[in-house]
UniProtKB/TrEMBL annotation:
Spans traversing the lipid bilayer: 6-22, 29-47, 59-79, 91-113, 119-140, 152-174, 180-198, 205-222
Chief subcellular location: membrane
Molecular function via GO: zinc ion transmembrane transporter activity
Membrane topology: Multi-pass membrane protein
Family annotation (InterPro entries): ZIP
GO cellular component term of the entry, any: membrane
Pfam families named among the record's database cross-references: Zip
Keyword list, A-Z: Membrane, Transmembrane, Transmembrane helix
Presence of keyword Membrane: yes
Source taxon at top rank: Bacteria
Keyword Glycoprotein annotated: no
The protein, known as: ZIP Zinc transporter
Taxonomic path: Bacteria, Pseudomonadati, Bacteroidota, Flavobacteriia, Flavobacteriales
Amino acid sequence: MTYLALILSVLIGVIIVFGLKPSNKFVQLLLAFSGAYLLSITILHLFPEVYIGNKSNIGLYIILGLLLQLILDFFSKGAEHGHIHIHDNIAFPWALFISLGIHAFMEGIPLAHNHNHEHLLWAIVIHKIPISIILATFFVKSKISKNHAILFLILFALMSPFGSLAGENISILATYKTEITAIIIGVFLHISTIILFETSKDHKFNLLKFIAILVGMIVAYLA
């Protein structure tokens, strides 16, 4: 179920790109909803999980996750939170693909042996849909062939399941599950807060974005 949900989240994003041809406004609203859901799940469920074990230096690992996402942002150009500009006939975005792949692999690791497995799983699934839309749109606009685009989308879809599989079978990852989860919390905090609290265009209140954020928080609370 876990692996299937993670793979389907990418497939849904691809279907939206090719079937609905979403506008930038739609993607931004979807990002706002996913960011609110991600932040709420992080605060309501992941924070208590990493601190309940009384392990030392948990805060340090959260800060490390924030710094790690800053580095990944340098290569992905902020695709995780929608800060991306797509032009026709661009070269294959290797830096973007590798950065998003690392991000997807890492967020899959804490799914193994996790008491809040379902909460974290759905947070990742909801977050991956708009990211998959952005990545698929990149492939459509790039010079890469359709077959290669499909191959790379399949690889991206498998990265989070690979991370979860690694967390289940590599002993050192299981041993440091709490610390790794804390790093992922830092990553999630960076992404979600930028999505939610970035300055709106012309500093105007965006009612639709506010509603999307509010719905995301309510859904996370009721989950």
